[in-house]
From TrEMBL:
The chain crosses the membrane at residues 20-43, 55-79. This is PH domain-containing protein. It comes from the Bacteria. It comes from Saccharopolyspora erythraea (Streptomyces erythraeus). The keyword Transmembrane helix applies. Keywords: Membrane, Transmembrane, Transmembrane helix.
Amino acid sequence: MSTHSGLAPGKNATVVRYRYGWGMLAGALGLLAFAGIFVFYLLTPGQAAREFNPFVPWVMIILVGPIALLFLAGSLFVLSRTHRVHVDERGMWFSSWNETDLIAWTELRAVRAREPRPKPKDDPKADSLPAALELHPGDANFAQCHAKLVKTTDSGLCTVDLPGRATVRRLAQAISKYRPDLLR
């Protein structure tokens, strides 16, 4: 992403906000709950002495506790990063913290909002498709200009991965407000 000095989205721009990391937070809370089970056994010494070797809860807390706390801190850090897409008459402004990248409408031939699709059950070699915004570039240098933002596929399409179906729908609705002719 590049920082555009002097350029900013219009005042009437539609803003779509999203965050990554909700699954990571759920995993961290699950690990903390697992470590909490062993803390419970340590707090009830009569039950711990009957059912376990007394060192098992300590070993599990020492092994799982710090990992769970690091995982929790990491997930909170990831969740604190709010990504924004400002859509206005000039294009889409992707911003994350202090980095901004403008994809102008003139750089695109078409835009397609791709909702996530699960892995087909009958084809073991097929992969699931994440939610993404598929961009059909108008020039050959598009992928190089926006290399930090987009992923290039074998078919020449560029995609911007998004966290879920709701984000894709909100972004498609914002694009249709300004450039319905580009949306497919």
